[in-house]
Amino acid sequence: MTKKKYDIVVWGATGFTGKWVAKHLFDTYHESGLAWAVAGRNADKLNEVRDFIGDDNALIDGLIADSEDESTLSELVKSTKVIITTVGPYAYYGSLLVELCAENGTHYVDLTGEVPWMREMIDAHEDTAKKSGAKIVHSCGFDSVPSDMGTYFAQQQAKKTLGKPLSSVRYQLMKAKGGISGGTIASMMNIVELAVKDKAIRRILTNPYALNPDPSFKGPDKGDQMSAKHSKVLDKWTAPFVMAGINTRIVRRSNALMGFAYGENFRYSEVMVTDSGAKGYAAAKSISAGIKTMMFTSITRVGRRFLGLFLPAQGEGPKVDPEDPGFYHIQFNGETEQGESFVTKLLGDGDPGYGSTSKMLAEAAVCLALDELETDGGFWTPASALGDAYLRRLQENGGLTFEVLASE
Ligand SMILES: NC(=O)c1ccc[n+]([C@@H]2O[C@H](COP(=O)([O-])OP(=O)(O)OC[C@H]3O[C@@H](n4cnc5c(N)ncnc54)[C@H](OP(=O)(O)O)[C@@H]3O)[C@@H](O)[C@H]2O)c1
Questions:
Q1: What confidence score (pLDDT) does residue 1 get?
Q2: To the nearest whole percent, how much of the chain has pLDDT over 90?
Q3: Whole-angstrom Cα distance, residue 21 to residue 25?
Q4: d(C-alpha 118, C-alpha 140), whole Å
Q5: All domains of the chain in start order, with CATH
Q6: Which residues neighbour 398 within 8 Å (Cβ) at sequence distance 6 or greater?
Q7: Is the CB of 87 within 6 Å of ligand 1?
Q8: 8 A C-beta contact, residue 250 and residue 381
Q9: 30: burial class by Cβ within 10 Å (0-12, 13-18, 19+)?
Q10: CA dist., res. 176 & res. 318, Å (int)
């Protein structure tokens, strides 16, 4: 790769999540010699970002690039080894950037959870990225790093302890505290809008293996859990997890990209855990009813406008309380083909949707910029592209803790 001016550029740094990504890079790597810059479409807003991150002397360059302007975007891509983008919805604003990165051998990370768009990008640009050496890694936030890296960790530890991979893993969100940003709401609404119009998109959304290199792959997993169910293992009630439709596809793609390291019959699912007894049942029922109501309401334009009255607008997000920054706790229950059980835990510090997400995204970019990785150019997932180096960075700087709880 030819020498570039920057190691990393954060495009979308003026947005709700982008400014936290910039803050993490500033706080963690400012004195390390990492060459990085912020980018956006508005110079005044970029100056506000400098104030926000504490860059009083304007040491961090601010670059202008608009998704509508190919020449500025192309210059941006050519100036850096890695680009971080938080400019979403990605299906609206992100396609040209992916194309330019694939052509110019620039590594790329984003926060998309837009499965049909990822499929489109893989099909359109994978060959170009392989030729240029660009490593494109989607979904480097709460979707889908805890799922992907949590499963990677569980499998790695199971192989060490039991000498074999787990043939099934269940992600259980035990507890979480955080909010959701307007940008994320806009991306979700955009997917619903596209799905209503287009049957092909609906087909992608309902295919559990939609992101596998071969999306016609037939494995043991069917649809995601859509109603309240009792978990015998935990003796608690579980509800559908709203991000499962994204995360499960990424984990299955990782397995396939790593040569089916978890096995061709590997099963993976995600749920939210409520409580035991009647209280747990009522909570699980109300979560699944809430998700169904949201989905149903957002089908029509009027419904989406109605929801918009109560949800944060683009550029807005949950109120940030430094005294209470949020957290999440996920338990992974794995089982081998022979019925041995293996349980791991993942703790994340910070609000899943922006605090923790911004650290995971920034660390993925640092990994691509600085670490020796075994992967070549192409479209990857966090686990398949970044593996052990990322696991280390997530624990050292990303606020994530991985732990084995039980093996029997
Ligand atoms: N996977 C996850 O866990 C996760 C978590 C959080 C967010 N996200 C995703 O990340 C994305 C960003 O979310 P957010 O809440 O940070 O959104 P946001 O606050 O609306 O920020 C969007 C950013 O994109 C910029 N932008 C918009 N249109 C542009 C254009 N035409 N050219 C250049 N820049 C443009 C905005 O610039 P201006 O400031 O100039 O408007 C802003 O910097 C969304 O797609 C969201 O779904 C994912």
A1: 57
A2: 80
A3: 6
A4: 13
A5: 6-141+356-396 (3.40.50.720), 145-351+399-407 (3.30.360)
A6: 356, 359, 360, 363
A7: yes
A8: yes
A9: middle
A10: 14
Q: pLDDT digits over 9-60, tens only?
A: 999 999 999 999 999 999 999 889 999 999 999 999 999 999 999 988 778 8
End-to-end Cα spacing for the chain: 47
Whole-angstrom CA distances from 211 to 75, 163, 214, 257, 394 are 30, 29, 8, 10, 24
User: Ligand 1: which of 14, 71, 139, 320 to mutate, most ligand atoms within 8 Å of CB?
Assistant: 14
Q: Which two tokens stand for residue 44?
A: 């005044």
Strands 36-40 vs 61-64: parallel, antiparallel or unpaired: parallel
User: 63-67: which pairs have CB atoms within 8 A and are 24 or more residues apart?
Assistant: 63/9, 63/37, 63/38, 63/39, 64/39, 64/40, 65/11, 65/39, 65/40, 65/41, 66/41, 67/41, 67/92, 67/93, 67/94, 67/96, 67/97
Q: Is 353 in the pocket of ligand 1 (CB under 6 A)?
A: yes
Which tokens go with 36?
A: 């990085």
- The stretches of 206-260 forming alpha helices (DSSP H) are 244-257
Please give the distance, rounded to the nearest whole angstrom, from the Cα atom of residue 180 to the centre of ligand 1: 13
Q: What tens digit of pLDDT does each residue of 57-80 get?
A: 778 899 999 999 999 999 999 999
